[in-house]
Amino acid sequence: MKKYLLSFVFSLCVCGIAAQEAETVITYEIG
Prior knowledge:
Elements: H1 2-30
């Protein structure tokens, strides 16, 4: 169970970083 939770948190972090990167790129493209 702990391993699954860790995996979930890890993918959540990766998704968050990816979203932040995409947001930065989009803002840069518009700007």
